[in-house]
Amino acid sequence: MKRRTFMKKIAGLSLGVSLTTLALPNKAKSEIIKPFAKLVADNVLDDDLIASIKALKQHSPGLIIGETHSHSTFSDGGHSVETIFTRGATLGLDFVTITEHLTHDRYFLEQNIASIEEQDRVRKYWNHEGLKPPVCYPALEVSTNMGHLITLFPEEYYKPNMLKQIHRYFQTFDKSLPPAESVARLTCAMGGVTIIPHPGISRSYPFGMPLSYIEHKFVEYADSIEDICTAHALNEKYSHRFGLASIGASDDHLNILCGTTVTAFQSSKYPDLQHAIKKRGTMAIRVSDKLDPLFTPVKLFFKPSNMISSHI
Fold it and tell me: Is 30 contained in some domain?
C-alpha cells in the first residue's frame, strides 16, 4: 500500500475512533491511540526521520539535534522513559528532554522527581546494543499564572544532592499557580534556562503565554521560545520578534511526534544545550510534515469533554 493511501486510511480510522470516545479521560485515550501511533511510526514515519536527521548532520558536521518537549507516563504521556529514549536514539537524536507537567491540581512535584530519577537510571543502565544513549536534561513543564513554562537544568541536577534543590524550591508549586516571573527567576538562579512552550495558544486555563504579555512583561525573564511545535501546528518566528533563542519541539505525548521538529546547535561553538540557549545559538528545524493529515482527528480525540476538565 502506498504511504499516501496508508495515511488517509489511518486518518479516517482515527477520526472514527475520535468521535466515539470523546468522553473518556485522556489517559484512557492514550492507551487507545498508542497502537495507531506505533503503526504509523513503523510504516510511514521513522525511516524518513532517520534519513532526514542523518542528512542534516551530513550537511552540517558537528550539528547537535534533539527534542526539548515531551512527556512520559509520569505525567500525561503514553510511554515509559526508556521507550522514549530508545526511539530517540534510534532516530539519531543526540539529546531527548522529557518535560513532565507540574500542575498544582493534577501533576505534582513527586511525579517530576520520580521521572528525573528514572531518566538517570535508564541512562546509567543503558542496554541497547548498537544505540548510543541520548543526552538528557532534568526539566519540568510548570503551569504558571500566565501559562506553561519549561525549566531546563544542567545534567548535574541528576545527582541526588542537586535534585534535592529542585524538590526544595519547587515544592510550593504543588499548591497553586506560581507567578511566571518567579519561576523564571528561580530557574535562572539555579543555573537553568527557560523555554516558553506553545506561545500564544489559548485555552480555558493558562496554557500558552499571551504574546502581548511576553513582549511587554516577560521577555526579560525568558531565555528561549518555541518557534515550531509539531503538536500545535506552530510555525512562527517568535524568537526574532522577542530576541530569544529559537526552539523546535514536538510536545510529544505518544512517542510518535518526537523527531518531527527539533532544536539544533553547533557543537563546535557550544558545549551543551544550555549554553547554546543562553548564547541564542539554537535553531528550530521542521524535519517532517508527514503527520499533518492526522492532526485534526487527534486534536478532536484529545479535546476535553464537558464532563472532564483538562489542564495539560
Answer: no
